[in-house]
Each structure stands twice: as structure tokens, then as C-alpha cells.
Amino acid sequence: MGTKLYVGGLPYSVTEQQLNDLFSQQGTVSSAKVITDKFTGQSRGFAFVEMSTSEEAQKAISALNGTQMDGRTLIVNEAKPQEKRSGGTFAGSRDRY
Q1: Angstrom distance (rounded) from CA 32 to CA 48
Q2: Residue 92 placed within a domain
Q3: Distances in whole angstroms, Cα of residue 94 to Cα of each of 6, 53, 86, 88
Q4: Suppose 70 and one of 11, 54, 61, 93 were both cysteines; which one would form an S-S bond, judging by CB atoms 3.0 to 4.6 Å apart?
């Protein structure tokens, strides 16, 4: 299985194709996903890129972390597992009315 990377500090105009092109210089990209706001569709300035091997992921981190893209400094590191979130309902809302 590949290694997922967090990519922060992205310009809001970046596309998944641009990310794919940038990271493919360091190895095989399995996937590239720009995270967008669910209401506006606007990029939130970060993405996740999955490289096919951990060696390629480390090469991408070394080569791209701290570099500039459209005047913004990229942050590239290994993605951490998503933390579990609590429920989405307002606590006690059913009991009040």
C-alpha cells in the first residue's frame, strides 16, 4: 500500500492535475485530492497525495517541503490518521421541546 502525504500551504487555485504533475516528478502518484469547502467548492488550501511507495513519499517530502508554489510555501509531510469525531447533533436538543 502507498503512503499518504498531507500537502498544505497550497494556492487556492491549484488543481488535482497540477498536484499530480508536481508529485509525479518524485515517483508514481496513486491519487491526488484537493480538499474543498463543501458549500462553495473553493479549495481549502490543502490536499492529500498518495505515493505508490514509502520511498517515493520520503523523496517527495525531501524535495517539495518548504518549496514555493505561486508565492506560497508548501508544507509536505506524512498524513496522520483522521481523528474520530463525535456525533453531529446538538446535545440535548430532542429533550428541550
Answers
A1: 6
A2: no
A3: 38, 49, 17, 13
A4: 11
CATH number of the domain at 26, please. Answer: 3.30.70.330
Q: Residues 59, 74: contact at Cβ < 8 Å? A: no
* pLDDT value of residue 81: 82
| CA–CA dist 79, 53 (Å, integer) | 14
What are the residues facing 94 on neighbouring strands?
A: none
Confidence bin at 1 (pLDDT 50/70/90): low
- pTM higher than 0.90: no
Query: 30-60 pLDDT, tens per residue?
Result: 999 999 999 999 999 999 999 999 999 999 9
Residue 72, Ramachandran bin (φ over 0: left; ψ between -120 and 50: alpha; else beta): beta
